Amino acid sequence: MHFKGSVVWITGASSGIGEALAYAFAREGATLLLSARRVAELERVRAACGLPDGQVHLAPLDLEDTSGVQALAGYWAQRLGRIDLLINNGGISQRALAAETPLELDRRIMEINYFGQIALTKAVLPHMLRQGSGHLVAISSISGKFGFPLRSAYAASKHAIHGFFETLLLELAETGIAVTVVNPGRIRTDISLHALLPDGSPQGVMDPGLAKGMSAEACAAQIVRAIRRRKPEANIGGTELIMVYLKRFLPGLFRRIARRVSAR
């Protein structure tokens, strides 16, 4: 029960990895603050956590519109007394060739996946600095380590997350605030169902590769372990993780394989 009594804020908590993380931290005895756009789904997750009413709170949030995050973070920091752990999990994916993706869609994906994460992080960080402790977690992707077909804007947003949070880790080294970047691979969630096509509509089907991937529950368990150990970075997944190391050590071979591997 390492996180018993800790205040844990999770975005994207209405499904997938975020939902699984909510249940994992509920079992740890944490006080939860859950955010997503879909309030009805957040209510469902709150009920399924099995905690007393005062231990699970909902903070509906659309990461595409960050104008209110400063006030939101201030309200919950005051109401709950502190924020110990922020898990930036909310985001959206893409299934479109770069040449067919309108710039407006690139901007939208960057707004949600990158600016949404850093806006909330910057809103929470002053409260952690005042309390002299805390842990900031960015759920990125192995697509933040390399480009991959049909994911140009998605990969770009995840690369940006790495640049920001790796810098933040160095800047906060002497403050008592930890930073962890998590890179999931193929995790069996609905992310591909909601992935954006060139016209901005959701793909509506699950990628076969994701359907065979690690469960969200297993992924969440590994994320909790990485946070507990205050790891700077964690790659989570199956055999697809080998692509991370091929890109680093054998980039030519990586490119040959990536061109042939099914993007779905």
Alpha-carbon distance between the two ends: 38 Å
Q: What's the rounded overall pLDDT mean?
A: 96
- Order of secondary-structure elements: EHEHEHEHEHEEHEHEHH
Unreliable sequence segments? none
**For the report, how would you describe the main beta sheet?**
7 strands, parallel
Strand order of the largest sheet: 3-2-1-4-5-6-9
Note the overall shape: globular
| Cα-atom radius of gyration | 18 Å
- Portion in strands: 5-15%
Tally of strands: 9
Structural class: alpha/beta
Proportion of residues in helical segments: 40-55%
Summed up, the helix count is 9
What does this structure look like?
The chain has 264 residues and is of the alpha/beta class. The chain is built from nine helices and nine strands. The chain has a seven-stranded parallel sheet, sandwiched between helices. The protein has a two-stranded parallel ribbon with strand order 7-8. Strand 5, helix 5 and strand 6 form a beta-alpha-beta unit. Helix 1 packs parallel to helix 2 and helix 1 crosses helix 7. The radius of gyration is 18 Å and the shape is globular. The N and C termini lie far apart (38 Å). The model has no long low-confidence stretch (mean pLDDT 96).
Summarize the structure.
The protein contains 9 helices and 9 strands. The strands form 2 sheets. A 7-stranded parallel beta sheet has the order 3-2-1-4-5-6-9, sandwiched between helices. A two-stranded parallel sheet has the order 7-8.
Task: List the main descriptive attributes of the protein structure presented here.
seven-stranded parallel β-sheet, 9 strands, 14% strand, alpha/beta, 264 residues, two-stranded parallel sheet
